[in-house]
Amino acid sequence: MTDRYANFAHSGAGKFFVRRLGLPDPPKLRRHDPDGPLIDGQVVVNGGGRLVEPVRKLLEKLGAPLEGPTAALVFDATAIVDTGGLRGLYDFFHPLIRTLRSSGRVIVLGTPPELCADAREATAQRALEGFVRSVGKELGRGGTAQLVYVSPGAEEAIESTARFLLSGRSAYVSGQVIRVGPAAVDVPEDWDQPLVGRTAIVTGAARGIGAAIAEVLTRDGAHVVCLDVPAAGEDLTRVANALKGTALQLDLTAEDAPRRLADFIATRHVHADIFVHNAGITRDKTLGRMDAAQWQSVLDVNLGSQERINEVLLAENLLGGNGRIVAVSSVSGIAGNRGQTNYATSKAGVIGLVQAHAPAFAAAGLTLNAVAPGFIETKMTAAMPMFIREAGRRMNSMSQGGLPVDVAETIAWLAHPASGGVNGNVIRVCGQSLLGA
Description:
By secondary structure, the chain is of the alpha/beta class. It has helices at residues 4-9, 12-21, 52-62, 87-93, 119-139, 159-166, 208-219, 233-242, 257-268, 292-315, 332-335, 341-363, 379-382, 386-394, 404-414, and strands at 42-46, 70-76, 100-110, 144-150, 176-180, 199-203, 223-228, 246-249, 272-277, 319-328, 367-373, 426-429.
C-alpha cells in the first residue's frame, strides 16, 4: 500500500510543513541495489580491542572507500573493562556522529557480558546496549545503530554480519543486539549468490512477506520450494513459476503434514539447506470475546506446526550440513498487543523455541534464529483502521512502515552459509519500533 503521508512529506510543500509543524519526517531509506556499491562512503573505525584489525582487513577486502562522505562509524568496545572505559564511546562518536551521511551506519562491537572476565567488565559491556539503542533514536535520516557481541574466538566469523549491517540490506533494522559465536565459516565463491546449489523451503509463500522471502532467496541462488495451504494454490503456483521454483500445497496443521513434508524432502531433494517458518495467521479478538477455535487455530499454525516440523527435520537428518532454520516471530510477541493474546502468545513462543533449541542446533552444526517484524506494508496492514495504521507506521525511528523485502533481506543474512556464528538470535525488523525492548 502506498504511504501517502511519506510521499507528501518528500514533496517540496510537504518538506516545508513538516519542518514548520514538527511533523514526523520519514526519510528515504537506502535499500540494496545490486548495481550499486555495498558501502557508499568511507568507514571510520576506532577502538583498541581485538576486533579492530579483523574489521580493517575486512573493509580492505570489500574495497571500502578511504575518503568521501562518512557512511559508517565502527567502534570496537571489546577493550572496555570497566565503567571508566565507557568514556571512549563519547570521545569517538561525539565529534563524528553529525558527519554521517543519510542512511549512515553505526556499529559497536562488544564482548557478550556473560563471557566477560569479571563483574566490572560485564557491567560495562552490558551498558553498550543502552548507548546503541539511544544513538539509533537520535540519528535520523535513515541511519541505523547496532550492537554486535562477538565471542572470543569468533573474530573471523563476522563477515556476513558486517556485510549485512553496512549495506542497504539492513535498511529497516536498527537498535538491535546481535550475538556472533565461534563457528566454522563456509565462505561462498560468490557473495552476490551465496546460496547457489542450496534448497530453501519457505512456508506461507503465496503472498506478502513469504513471497518476498522466496524472491530474495532465489535472487541469492537458492532453489526455493514455495509452500502454502491448498486454498492459496493459484497464488502459490504463480509465485513458484515466476521464480522457477517448486510449489507445494500442504496444510501444516494436518496431522500427517510433518510426515508428508519429510517424504517430499527426502524424495525430491534428499535434504533441505534452509527452512523458513513464515506461515502465520491472525484471529484478532479481545480475550473475553475470543472463542476457543480462534485461540487454538492461531497457536497451531504459528507455533505448533513449527515445533512438529523441526522435530522431524532433526530426527530424520533432513537438514543439510550447515543447515539453517529461520522462524518468523513478531514485535507483538515481544511487546504484546491489544486484541492479540492468541497471536502474541504464539509469537512469543517462537522466540522461546529459538532460545531453547539453539544450543542443540549449534552442537549439530546448524543454526536456529528468528526475525520479529514490526509494521510491514502488506495487504493485512493495509486493511487496518487508518489511525491504527498510521500509528504503526510512525511509531519507530524511521517514521514509516517497512517493506516485505526488509524482512526477506534479514532472513537471507541469517540463511547465509557464512552466518554459522549467528545462532539463537531474535532480530527485530521494525525500524526500531518504540514498542517493546
